[in-house]
Amino acid sequence: MPITRRQACAPLLSALLPWPLAEAATRPDPHERLARIAARYFADKLALNPLAASATVGGAHYEGRLAITIAPAEIAKARALYRRVAAELRALPAEHLAPADRLNHELLAWEVQLRLDGDAFPGHLMPIDQFGALPLELANLGSGDQYQPLKTPADYGNYLRRLQKLPAYNRQAIANMRQGMRRGYTVPRALIDSGLPIYRSLAEPVFDKSPFARALAVMPAAFSAAERARIGRAWRSAFERELLPAMRELVAFLEGPYRRACRSTAGISALPNGAAWYAYQVRANTTTDMPPDEIHSLGLAEVARIRGEMAKLQAGFGVEGSVTDFLRWHAAQARFRPYSTWPALLKGYQDINQRVLPLLPRLFSRLPKHAMDIRPMPELQRATASPYYTNPAPDGSRPGVFYVGAGVEPAQFNVAIMTSLLLHEGQPGHHFQGSRQIELDLPDFRRWGWNSAFGEGWALYAETLGIEMGVYDDPTQYLGHLKQELLRAVRLVTDTGLHAKGWTREETIRYMMDTEGASEAEARQATERYMAWPGQALAYKIGALKIQQMRQRAQARLGERFSLPDFHELMLSQGTLPLKVLERLADEWIAAGGGTPVKAASPG
Q1: In this predicted model, what pLDDT tens digit does every residue of 459-480 receive, in sequence order?
Q2: Contact predicate 378/215, CB 8 Å
Q3: What are phi and psi of 374, to 5 degrees?
Q4: Annotated domain spans of the chain
Q5: SS3 track for 27-40
Q6: Can you say whether the dihedral through the CA atoms of 219, 222, 223, 225 is positive or negative?
Q7: Distance separating alpha carbons of residues 258 and 246, to the nearest angstrom
Q8: CA distance 89 to 112
Q9: First-to-last CA distance in the chain?
Q10: Which of 122, 125, 134 is nearest to 170 (CA)?
Q11: Ordered DSSP codes for 138-177
Q12: What does the pLDDT average to over 194-201?
């Protein structure tokens, strides 16, 4: 870092001024102190989890590194980091700061305190579920189109160094799960049963069929024959000596002692201190203080409202019976499942995207600078994962990507939800929020920050903008929008049902089938997701409803002065925020008469 004039003059000032005036002259002002605290925190946090660093900021500094974040020593390092930053912020009272820095101080204090509060709950004792954890994540990086670059021989060396950490991770995961078995912290047995096919595939004994060998299939043609041979030998050696034995050991443990010890209950409240753990998960994922009972009641009300809207559409389709009968009828119609291949399905999404693009400037004063691509989800994830989005690389080397996949093959995919999914995962949903955020002039901990209530809430709110854009003019696409909204309302009911009201896995599956018209397989997959990820499913609807309430309040108070593009700029101009903070800023904006929001705070 270059020496500033202030730093160069500090020794002279110290000599001329008596103490404590000399100390005051050399001490950084509050703005600089906060900027240093925030910058050091972010750098230290990335160093603790290089894999997450690759997924967020990228860069060669992290690409060959991997930390075993579930190891006691690594957990202790993270705890020490959060405690240090909390103490540093307490020593820098917010009242000494300018307004923009008071917001930075508030958000950093909120983030580290949330992490410290979560330290009371031993999630590291349950590191494996049907989502696959680190073994699956590492295997998926071999596709070459995610955040692990595979363009040069050095890239392959970096990736292999990460793969060679997998045996250490697996050993630590097994040790943690054994401790969890002794202390009463295990995942539901149903989640292990659903995950075992994935883990068995990762223990494939034939090298050429192994998911860990897929990186060799995407090796650039520009590599020389000698480079290709050298990389292939290194990969096979690592597979035979390290990866395959490690995955076999993990699978044997999961199939045997761990599965036998796993619990039959579905909700987190069945664990020691489980009610407090779920209350924490609700607070962390909604960034509100709403109790589970209130969320459950809100979910029931939203379910009734949305099904009422569906009933209005039902008559137009000429289908008799209940709304659930109508939804099941619609799902069974072959005409709504026209795609037989992945390229055809991708083309369908690209066509919707091309229709949406020219409509966005009506609703937004600023558009993202980064491009968005639409790709098929990595094959290993398609059976258990939902469609998702990944942010672009800030240097433009990787676009934002909407990964398509829905637990079924294209021939079973119903087109009704495609427009809503594109608006949510693509633009103006996650792509606008994520891509815009990394363009903002914010401290790095905010520029790369995330919370589900804002991020998923914005994306669900973005689905509703399809009404104003006119892209739900096809009744099937509008029904699909309502189905997606109903899904998020049902999540409020079922997540709180599972984790606060003692619902069983089977009761939850039945509720989804009866309410959404979901198939047993769809309801099972969704239920098991909520079992594995308590509270996360609440973020979508809670966040969207809060944003809709802010918009309605602004429209009512500003009247003709209300501008929808200005409101959307307000929502996106400060990056990810807890909902309570976002509401406060919205109220301040309304009180000031609306208009174009001020620029995001400078990081200094």
Answers
A1: 999 999 999 999 999 999 999 9
A2: no
A3: -120, 120
A4: 34-48+71-118, 127-264, 281-541
A5: CCCHHHHHHHHHHH
A6: positive
A7: 16
A8: 10
A9: 14
A10: 134
A11: HHHGGGSSSSS--SSHHHHHHHHHHHTTHHHHHHHHHHHH
A12: 95
